[in-house]
């Protein structure tokens, strides 16, 4: 009898990988939906709850604040208790918090519920991505993780389309139905995830070799076993402080900064899309068309980046993404009073080019850290990236009112070009490496 020595990272994609992508990617779809739906409901919700600029900004930023705490919590829970158990926490919170928003009567109550939604989103990032990456073949790792970002923008696009439909059909209180609508998607996600196995890499890191071997055989067949796993993690538990002092501090800084610079302008746009487009002289049907068109172009940009990620490489893609998207934002600042077609063209260029940085948000942190601290590192990156995003989102209505749209676009361009500088200095290349090689400091 011959021994199968093929690494599980070199096997072809099978039905399990496809289904796991759906299970993990469903979380990204819900994340994009719940974080974008607030922008759809904002105008009607502001009138319904008599919100001033302060509370508009706080409610828009509340989910991002929740992501800060949820990222830390999700990373710790996922590395401590396993991927499988934590996989159901996010959908449960999505359902409960979204339904509760239907009956909300005050700005503070809505802020707190949106905060819980953010916690759920923060938990999703480390658990869904670490579980997926620890099963994927090497050559499919980048494209599949990038697909999760595409699904995020698909969820955002769906939020704008369905939300706009509900607002047109539902009367003055339709915003309540709009904010409650993610509960149905969360319920579907919960059902889809039933039957997901635990990560054999995590099981092995906890000394549960027999269970890890059983999972490998069930997924890849009886010809495979622990011998086909290309790494044997040591049994250890690292805290956040240990993470920074274990040689991975520089990588953590790179992930946090590039992730922050890629999400701050995006979240600001999504939270206040109608207001931003209105300040750029896009109103009425132009604003509605622009919101959907720009969101779809984000999806197209991510699809293009997904196709190029293995051939172009991670580092080159990130640098070009920040460069050209930053120039597009500069153009919006310079030509803020331009014709509608020019504004849409520049916004469209930003949406297309930022796709590279967007898809790498989930690729880099999952590749740069070992199994023992992978989810924790992803959670920390998620949390730190949302600090700036929350502050930026809160400031958008204030800055627009006080300094105007040109200054707002220049500020967004400065953030994006900072990402370019940091990526040029620190971004590594991890394509064609297995997880153990990519995470190695040597």
UniProtKB/TrEMBL annotation:
<dbReference type="InterPro" id="IPR020846">
    <property type="entry name" value="MFS_dom"/>
</dbReference>
<dbReference type="GO" id="GO:0016020">
    <property type="term" value="C:membrane"/>
</dbReference>
<protein>
    <submittedName>
        <fullName>MFS transporter</fullName>
    </submittedName>
</protein>
<comment type="similarity">
    <text>Belongs to the major facilitator superfamily. Sugar transporter (TC 2.A.1.1) family.</text>
</comment>
<feature type="transmembrane region" description="Helical">
    <location>
        <begin position="57"/>
        <end position="77"/>
    </location>
</feature>
<keyword id="KW-0472">Membrane</keyword>
<keyword id="KW-1133">Transmembrane helix</keyword>
<feature type="domain" description="Major facilitator superfamily (MFS) profile">
    <location>
        <begin position="20"/>
        <end position="431"/>
    </location>
</feature>
<feature type="transmembrane region" description="Helical">
    <location>
        <begin position="252"/>
        <end position="274"/>
    </location>
</feature>
<feature type="transmembrane region" description="Helical">
    <location>
        <begin position="110"/>
        <end position="133"/>
    </location>
</feature>
<dbReference type="InterPro" id="IPR005829">
    <property type="entry name" value="Sugar_transporter_CS"/>
</dbReference>
<keyword id="KW-0813">Transport</keyword>
<dbReference type="Pfam" id="PF00083">
    <property type="entry name" value="Sugar_tr"/>
</dbReference>
<feature type="transmembrane region" description="Helical">
    <location>
        <begin position="376"/>
        <end position="399"/>
    </location>
</feature>
<feature type="transmembrane region" description="Helical">
    <location>
        <begin position="174"/>
        <end position="196"/>
    </location>
</feature>
<dbReference type="GO" id="GO:0022857">
    <property type="term" value="F:transmembrane transporter activity"/>
</dbReference>
<feature type="transmembrane region" description="Helical">
    <location>
        <begin position="145"/>
        <end position="162"/>
    </location>
</feature>
<feature type="transmembrane region" description="Helical">
    <location>
        <begin position="405"/>
        <end position="427"/>
    </location>
</feature>
<feature type="transmembrane region" description="Helical">
    <location>
        <begin position="317"/>
        <end position="335"/>
    </location>
</feature>
<keyword id="KW-0812">Transmembrane</keyword>
<feature type="transmembrane region" description="Helical">
    <location>
        <begin position="86"/>
        <end position="104"/>
    </location>
</feature>
<dbReference type="InterPro" id="IPR036259">
    <property type="entry name" value="MFS_trans_sf"/>
</dbReference>
<dbReference type="InterPro" id="IPR005828">
    <property type="entry name" value="MFS_sugar_transport-like"/>
</dbReference>
<feature type="transmembrane region" description="Helical">
    <location>
        <begin position="341"/>
        <end position="364"/>
    </location>
</feature>
<feature type="transmembrane region" description="Helical">
    <location>
        <begin position="286"/>
        <end position="305"/>
    </location>
</feature>
């Amino acid at each position: 009898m011959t021994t199968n020595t093929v690494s599980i990272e070199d096997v072809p994609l099978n039905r399990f990988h496809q289904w796991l992508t759906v299970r993990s990617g469903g979380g990204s779809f819900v994340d994009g939906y719940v974080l974008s739906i607030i922008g759809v409901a904002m105008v009607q919700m502001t009138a319904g709850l008599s919100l001033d600029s302060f509370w508009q900004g706080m409610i828009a930023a509340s989910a991002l604040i929740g992501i800060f705490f949820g990222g830390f919590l999700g990373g710790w829970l996922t590395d401590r208790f396993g991927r499988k158990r934590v996989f159901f926490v996010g959908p449960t919170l999505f359902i409960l918090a979204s339904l509760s928003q239907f009956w909300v009567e005050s700005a503070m109550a809505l802020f707190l519920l949106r905060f819980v939604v953010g916690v759920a989103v923060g938990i999703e990032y480390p658990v869904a991505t670490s579980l997926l990456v620890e099963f994927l073949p090497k050559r499919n790792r980048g494209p599949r993780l990038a697909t999760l970002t595409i699904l995020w923008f698909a969820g955002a696009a769906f939020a704008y389309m369905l939300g706009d439909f509900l607002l047109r059909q539902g009367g003055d209180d339709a915003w309540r139905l709009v904010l409650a609508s993610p509960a149905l998607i969360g319920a579907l996600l919960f059902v889809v995830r039933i039957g997901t196995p635990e990560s054999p890499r995590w099981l092995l890191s906890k000394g549960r070799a027999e269970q890890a071997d059983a999972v490998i055989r069930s997924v890849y067949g009886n010809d495979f076993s622990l011998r086909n796993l290309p790494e044997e993690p040591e049994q250890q538990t690292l805290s956040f402080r240990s993470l920074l002092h274990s040689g991975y501090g520089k990588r953590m800084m790179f992930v946090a900064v590039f992730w922050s610079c890629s999400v701050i302008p995006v979240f600001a746009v999504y939270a206040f899309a109608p207001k931003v487009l209105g300040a750029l002289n896009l109103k009425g049907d132009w604003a509605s068309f622009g919101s959907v068109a720009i969101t779809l172009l984000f999806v197209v940009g991510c699809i293009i980046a997904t196709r190029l990620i293995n051939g172009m490489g991670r580092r080159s893609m990130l640098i070009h993404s920040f460069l050209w998207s930053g120039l597009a934002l500069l153009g919006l600042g310079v030509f803020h009073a331009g014709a509608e077609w020019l504004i849409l063209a520049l916004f469209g260029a930003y949406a297309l080019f930022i796709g590279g940085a967007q898809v790498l948000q989930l690729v880099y942190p999952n590749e740069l850290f070992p199994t023992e601290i992978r989810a924790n590192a992803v959670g920390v990156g998620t949390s730190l990236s949302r600090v700036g995003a929350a502050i930026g989102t809160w400031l958008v209505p204030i800055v627009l009112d006080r300094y105007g749209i040109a200054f707002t676009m220049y500020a967004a361009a400065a953030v994006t070009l900072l990402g370019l500088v940091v990526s040029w200095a620190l971004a590594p290349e991890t394509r064609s490496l297995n997880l153990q090689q990519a995470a190695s400091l040597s």
